[in-house]
Amino acid sequence: MIQGAKTLQARTSHYIAVDAVHDELAVPNPFAQAILFFRGGANGNEAPIRIIQGPKTLLSAPDNVAVDPVHREVFTASFPSDSILVFRGDASGDVEPIRILHGPNTKLDRPIRVEVDPTNNVMAVVTDHAILVFNRTDNGDTAPKWIISGPKTGVGTRFSTRDVRLFSEGKKIIAAAAFRGRSSERNEEDAEGRRGGQRFIGVWKYGDNGDIAPWAILNATPITKIPGTRLAINSEGGDLMVGGDGQVSVYHLPEIFQRRD
Amino acid sequence: MANDKESAGTSILVYPTQFQPTNRIMEPRRRVAGPKTDLGMVCGLALSVEHGELYSVSGETGTLNVFPLDAQGNVGPGRRLIGVMPRASAGVFLDVKHDELFITTEHVNRISVYPRTFKQDQEPLRYLQGPATGLADPHGIYVDSETNEIFVSNHGNWHKTETGEGEVRGPDSLTRTSLGYTTPGRALPLAPSTGKFLPPSITVHSRTTSGDAAPLRMIQGPHTLLNLPDGLYRDPVSGEIIVANSGDDSVLFFDKDASGDAAPVRVLKGPATKFKGPAGVSIDAKRNELWVASWDGHVAGVFPRTANGNVAPLRVIRTAPESAPLASMGRIGAVAYDPKRKEILAPN
Description:
- Helix content of chain A is 0%, strand content 40%.
- Chain A is mostly beta strands.
- Chain A has one domain: YVTN repeat-like/Quinoprotein amine dehydrogenase (Methylamine Dehydrogenase, Chain H, 7 Propeller).
- Chains A and B meet through strand 2, strand 13, strand 17, strand 18 and strand 19 of A and strand 14, strand 15 and strand 26 of B.
């Protein structure tokens, strides 16, 4: 457990990214506007090994982070400013982003999470209402190469997307969403039998663009009991991990993690 | 007691104060929980015996819920404040003498004050917010209506906030973060970051002040031993400021006039105390007892009011066996997989 004042984590801690190559962890602190880096094996009340923080960083309430260990870069989606900020992976202190994706052509509108695939050089951004996919090195006011949104997708209709992961070897986009509705309404079904907060995991192929139904879908049922909308993958083991409701559920889904269709 | 552990179902639990000492799990007398309660991540509680009301704030919503003091089960709040109050409250305190409710909001470094008799869309009577206030990720709050002081615990995560930031005012909100993910709002321009880490602190403010006003005094520095300070209370007899120091499993007691880098006058800490992540403290003046709730350890302990050092509690309320693992997971913010160690990581 990494916990305590020296860690500089905020009580509200919404993300963590693993850099397996350099054996580091990256954690955002939204209130101190910082990205913290820890040893991969950090434990207890242990201080970060470096921190990105300061006026030049342009960080504003960062609550997500993704790492590209191949090109040694760090990404964060800035919800307040409709932008993606990219830093050198070994950056420390008050440093400028090396790239900023920002502007009307990007269609970034309240970006929540960003994920990067260094093998295929793509970057996925999840908003409340769409999954946007860019080239990894896109910069400035650049349009996304693919947009997944529309009634058939389940994204951007009445489901709110909250997290996205990329399975690079199989070229798959995996996203989690929850049916709109307050927690207090979770026992109240709509006309189609959906309850507020009901979740699903959707899987799309690279290149899917527009209103395209998921290639695979995992719905919340009394058996699956999808606990939340936070995702991680262990592609080697064929496992999808889903966090929420104070628990992490692991689904063994090797069919999703095949290297080919 | 507020229970914001999501996997257990967030709830308000009601226990007796007097009972035979036991180390067994104690069932609550009553439990307020369920979808109708809309408790969310219930982080702060206050109660009024005189008015028969229980007040709760949530770390995820911008609401203040009021239940009858004898509420039980899956019941909706009798009254709700859903006006402009910023999202993500941490602490709430009822000033009985002046009939006012004080609420801290960690996201936007703010203290909001409302009349206890608020209407649903009530504007705050006044609020403290801005760079001069010294507020930095505020959590616990206590108001001394006799000395006219507000005491606030701050974790130290700071960024510059504007007065009014965080208020829910639709498209006119200063920031869209106050509106949540689903509602469009004003995008901020890319601008220099202002964030920094400050040492944890206890800030003391005038009860009647408002706006971007400096604190009357601040307890801050290495001698204070402050480490993720959470709930706090004032001893009605000695005037000491009592702090649940969640970061190092201790309760700190400061002199009533403490200021600056002041050392605590006593520290309650050690294995005998059973503290694990203490988050709440309170004094039962009638029985001369100190209550400490330990979130991680699933336990609330009762001590003599003047306890000091490594002292065992007189009795405990236990919600899990002593051998149970630490609570650890509250609300999971994300999941990650470390292939090197074959470990799942979950910040919360």
